[in-house]
Design brief:
- The N and C termini lie far apart (88 Å).
- About 6% of the residues have low confidence.
- This protein has a seven-stranded antiparallel β-sheet, with no helix packed on it.
- It is built from no helices and seven strands.
- By secondary structure, the chain is mainly β.
- It is elongated.
- Helices cover 0% and strands 74% of the residues.
């Protein structure tokens, strides 16, 4: 019976040059048929996953710029009666992206004629989401069960962009 009790977890903390950081933690608690797990992460290195070993190869899901990610989640499972279990989860995620691009393009048309195009583009994005899940499962017998599920997803996204372009011609 003592094999169904315990706690374990993992904490990772990293810091680097240019004020880069990455922190994550997970905690798991088991007490007979009750289970609790919690996860948290914050970083500004474009990692939207919980460990560097599971980080996607495109480092930021195809987006450019610097993305700061904050995430928090929890799962819980407990028996309500002999045949009924209640379990659920909550997950919060926030991603803030900053992208700045600068370019200077010179077109030469002849020895004494050219154009210069100076362009500055900046954009900011802010995405937040909440996910709630709650389930109740009734194991009627060894072959039948009845499950009630409720899911709520809330998401908020904001994108702002600024572009400045200057064209000059010289003769």
């Amino acid at each position: 019976k003592n094999k169904k009790k315990g706690n374990f977890g993992k904490i990772e903390i990293g810091a680097g040059s240019d004020q880069k950081y990455s922190e994550s933690a997970n905690l798991n608690h088991f007490n007979n048929n009750k289970q609790f797990s919690g996860i948290a992460q914050i970083n500004n290195i474009n990692n939207q996953n919980f460990t560097s070993s599971t980080q996607s190869s495109n480092n930021g899901n195809g987006r450019s710029g610097i993305i700061t990610t904050s995430s928090l989640g929890a799962n819980y499972r407990t028996p309500v009666s002999k045949n009924v279990e209640l379990y659920g989860s909550y997950f919060y995620s926030s991603e803030q992206g900053v992208n700045t691009q600068k370019s200077l393009l010179q077109n030469l048309f002849s020895i004494d004629s050219s154009t210069f195009n100076n362009q500055n583009i900046s954009s900011n994005s802010n995405n937040k989401s909440h996910r709630f899940n709650i389930n109740m499962e009734d194991k009627i017998d060894s072959r039948n069960s009845l499950t009630f599920r409720s899911n709520v997803n809330i998401q908020n996204s904001l994108l702002s962009s600024f572009q400045q372009s200057t064209l000059a011609k010289s003769n």
